[in-house]
Write a structure and sequence with these properties.
The complex is a heterodimer of chains A (about 290) and B (about 130). Chain A is about 55% helix and about 10% strand. Chain A is α/β, with parallel strands linked by helices. In chain A, a hairpin with a 5-residue loop joins strand 6 and strand 7. By secondary structure, chain B is mainly α. Chain B is built from five helices and no strands. The chains are: A alpha/beta (about 290), B mainly alpha (about 130). At the A-B interface, helix 1 of A face helix 1, helix 2 and helix 3 of B.
């Protein structure tokens, strides 16, 4: 890790630098807060270890200035001071310090705290990476990582976070790839009366009818889940239109009228009840009345 | 009137803390770290004496306090317990604005530094 040390005592600065470098860290050590702040801005260290009492800019002021910069990457700040912990730690933490160590330097304790710092900084970097704007190809949706490599979205997130993905279709893609082609096939093949295609003949086309019933259940379920969790407006226009077309295809006048009345005019509870009734009516084992024939 | 001077605590404290020195030994593979630390500390101590003496002359406690505080940290990190205690005494005396007593402590300071550095150097030579 890149570690910036701000310490005005030469011996303490040397000892601290030596300890950290021996542990494999990159270290820049400065003699006061002012110089440390300059280094901080151009070097962006992961960790800052600062003495409190220093000339020019003291440790507390340095911390406040660093926090005011609002860097994209989080910097873990350790105050290393001869000042007593109990009476001072609240003030330093309030200023933006993350950890407080008292002098004389305890090398073993410092190294343990640096491990903690590494853990937090790495986690924080992952989070900030996920929060920043990610460049995505407009055409193929590939994502560019920080090394200018392009990769698929799921591969990108797997690399950055270790998250694995299961693959399926979202409701909108399912409707688009599966439901719409069937509906269009049906609508193209059926006679149209007053702009409305005639319902599917259940006897003549049992497979198509069964498919459309299943789709209607899926559309209905999705819509009900959305309505229950987010309210009526969450139902997408596409889903409502599909619901209407399915209802027409299946000859269900009730569903057709519900869908055509629009989301803004429907009360969620009413729609939910009606969809439940429609699903019951369409279920093969339900005791619902016979559907109207074609 | 100022209260009488207490017995300096440094009289009963040893020069080096063996535990800290043992840690320094593990950090110093070729003896170069201790050599550099001795040099740096000598500079820190010289700066302290200058700043503290100026503070006593000007009857200004703040620079004395600051210098003593800084040297307390570094002397403690090098295991110089006697010197670290002396720095704490100077810091407390400065907070109480007892400049006469500070002057007396500063007189002990240079021999104290030399004693501590000699002990550290002897250790360095022994461990090299």
């Amino acid at each position: 890790m890149k570690i910036l040390v701000a310490e005005d005592s030469g011996a303490s600065r040397l000892l601290l630098s030596h300890v950290l470098k021996s542990a494999g860290h990159e270290v820049i050590a400065e003699v006061n807060g002012e110089r440390a702040l300059e280094v901080y801005q151009r070097w962006q260290p992961a960790v800052v270890i600062t003495d409190w009492q220093m000339p020019e800019l003291d440790g507390l002021q340095l911390v406040q200035r660093i926090r005011a910069l609002r860097s994209q990457r989080y910097t873990w700040i350790i105050m290393l001071t001869a000042r007593e912990f109990k009476t001072n730690y609240a003030l330093t933490m309030g200023a933006g310090v993350d950890d407080y160590l008292t002098k004389p330097l305890d090398v073993e304790l410092l190294m343990v705290r640096i491990q903690v710092a590494r853990r937090v900084v790495e986690l924080s970097n992952e989070v900030s990476l996920l929060k920043r704007v990610i460049p995505v190809c407009m055409s193929c949706r590939s994502v560019r990582d920080t090394s200018e490599h392009w990769m698929e979205l799921d591969q990108y997130f797997r690399c950055q976070t270790g998250i694995d993905f299961s693959h399926g279709l979202c409701p909108d893609c399912f409707f688009e790839r599966s439901v719409l082609p069937e509906l269009e096939r049906y609508e193209a093949s059926r006679p149209v009366s007053a702009g409305v295609p005639a319902p599917v003949d259940r006897q003549a086309h049992p497979e198509l009818y069964s498919d459309l019933v299943n789709h209607l259940k899926v559309v209905g379920d999705r819509l009900v889940i959305m309505l229950r969790s987010k309210g009526l407006k969450a139902g997408t226009e596409l889903q409502l239109k599909l619901l209407g077309r399915l209802a027409v295809a299946l000859g269900d006048g009730l569903l057709a009228s519900l869908a055509s009345s629009g989301p803004g005019q429907l009360h969620a509870a009413v729609l939910r009840d009606e969809l439940d009734r429609a699903r019951l009516a369409l279920h093969p084992n339900s005791a619902a009345p016979e559907r109207p024939g074609p | 009137m100022n209260p009488p001077l207490e017995t300096p605590r440094t009289q009963v404290v040893s020069v080096l803390d063996p535990e800290v020195v043992a840690v320094l030994r593990t950090l110093d593979e070729d003896g170069s770290l201790l050599t550099e630390l001795i040099e740096e500390f000598r500079r820190d101590a010289g700066r302290f004496v200058l700043e503290a003496s100026a503070g006593v002359s000007d009857l200004d406690a703040e620079p004395i306090c600051r210098a003593a505080h800084a040297l307390r940290g570094s002397s403690g990190s090098l295991g110089m317990v006697g010197l670290s205690t002396l720095c704490l005494e100077v810091e407390e005396l400065a907070q109480a604005r007892r400049f006469e007593a500070i002057g007396a402590r500063l007189a002990q300071f240079e021999p104290g530094v030399e004693r501590a550095l000699a002990a550290l150097d002897a250790f360095r030579k022994g461990s090299a």
